[in-house]
Amino acid sequence: xxxxxxxxxxxxxxxxxxxxxxxxxxxxxxxxxxxxxxxxxxxxxxxxxxxxxxxxxxxxxxxxxxxxxxxxxxxxxxxxxxxxxxxxxxxxxxx
Length: 95
Ligand SMILES: [Zn+2]
Hints:
Blueprint: H1 10-16, E1 20-24, E2 30-33, H2 35-38, E3 52-53, E4 61-65, H3 69-75, E5 92-93
Antiparallel strand pairs: 1-2, 1-4, 3-5
The chain binds zinc ion (ZN).
Zinc ion binds at residues 24, 26-27, 29, 54, 56, 58.
């Protein structure tokens, strides 16, 4: 797993076949955004410019690029989520 560089686009993540890992900096929520949910942001959108907001209302949200499928499973390990499993549908883009 690595932080996105300025050259990483949504399309490059989709091409990788792996979801985008997203972590809130305010609450413990961690979510994977599946490729099909990223498809409509593809274009030339860069990951570091992706307008994400957590369901807690925080915009302190960091995206990470996964490099292996195993990383996807360990990323969402429910080690610190008091409200049960994370809810992927809670994440949405803000334009
Ligand atoms: Zn949050």
